[in-house]
Design goal:
Elements: E1 15-18, E2 30-32, E3 40-48, E4 54-58, H1 63-70
Antiparallel strand pairs: 1-3, 2-3, 3-4
Bound molecules: zinc ion (ZN).
Zinc ion (ZN) binds at residues 7, 9-10, 12, 48, 50-51, 53.
């Protein structure tokens, strides 16, 4: 969906990208990994305007950060 811009559920090409953001006090579309909003990982969303299906994506550069925090040892 991210690359083809085609909905896997209904095959619609009416896809929009909703960028992640960080608001005050950690609001917005992100994953908190620390005490401040500066350490949040942004979650970008792709939404099919035809059926409402959405996918969430995280920047590749942020994956090691999440791994470090959430991967069990
Ligand atoms: Zn769809």
């Amino acid at each position: 969906m991210k690359y083809k811009k085609i909905c896997p559920k209904c095959s619609s090409t009416d896809i929009i990208m909703i960028p992640g953001n960080t608001g005050a006090y950690g609001s917005g579309n992100n994953i908190q990994i620390g005490l401040t909003s500066f350490s949040a990982v942004l979650v970008h969303r792709y939404l099919c305007c035809n059926c409402g299906y959405s996918e969430e994506w995280i920047n590749k550069k942020d994956i090691p950060t999440l791994k470090k925090k959430f991967q069990s040892k």
